[in-house]
Design a protein that fits this description.
Number of strands: 6
Radius of gyration: 19 Å
Helix content: 40-55%
Structural class: alpha+beta
Largest sheet: 4 strands, antiparallel
């Protein structure tokens, strides 16, 4: 796969990711949900940028996470350029490009959203607001895709989790997260093809 095609894939993922996030942020109030199907909803949440809303505690936790991600993206970018230069398999190049695009998409939220949007808590956010909700490197990541395929109480006879409320699948994510997951999935499922020169 050529560098131009890899760039096109990255650009496409970034455009779809950012357009979907900006649309949700400017058309939904935080926590608002639209039911598309019983098992698929658009549900607007924001988080610090780690899986399942996990965050690094402390005043500088968000800044540390964002700076770490930026360094990681540079490393992934180098890996991508090296894989293309050495003519590695298309599986590997596509996987790296997807991971790069996804990481970059969430970094854009973290770096810029705090200074270009106002708060979404009680009203629709406006872009390029004179009253932004945060500062540089402290933006919140926008998530919206929610697939509660099954939700209910587990049978009491199950060990540990019996009788407890359970939702499958309870993660809420975005296009960038899907790109990262798809890239990692390609590396796991097509491991031999991906790392075969």
């Amino acid at each position: 796969m050529s560098l131009r095609k890899a760039y096109f894939l990255i650009f496409l993922v970034l455009i779809v990711d950012q357009l979907s996030k900006i649309y949700v942020k400017t058309n939904f109030i935080l926590g608002e949900e639209v039911v598309v199907f019983d098992w698929f909803r658009i549900h607007f949440i924001e988080n610090e940028g780690m899986a399942w809303g996990t965050k690094i505690p402390g005043e500088y936790g968000k800044l540390i996470l964002t700076v770490f991600r930026i360094f990681a993206v540079f490393g992934i970018g180098y890996w991508l350029a090296d894989a293309i230069k050495k003519r590695h398999s298309t599986y590997l190049i596509v996987a790296i490009a997807l991971i790069f695009a996804g990481a970059a998409g969430n970094i854009l939220d973290s770096v810029f959203y705090g200074v270009i949007f106002d708060d979404s808590t009680h009203n629709l956010a406006t872009i390029f607001s004179p009253n932004p909700y945060g500062t540089w490197f402290h933006g919140l990541v926008v998530d919206m895709f929610y697939f509660p395929i099954w939700e209910g109480n587990l049978p009491a006879w199950l060990p540990i989790f019996g009788g407890k409320h359970f939702a499958f699948f309870n993660a809420i994510f975005n296009v960038a997260d899907m790109a990262i997951s798809t890239g990692v999935g390609i590396l796991l499922v097509f491991n031999k093809k991906a790392f075969h020169k």
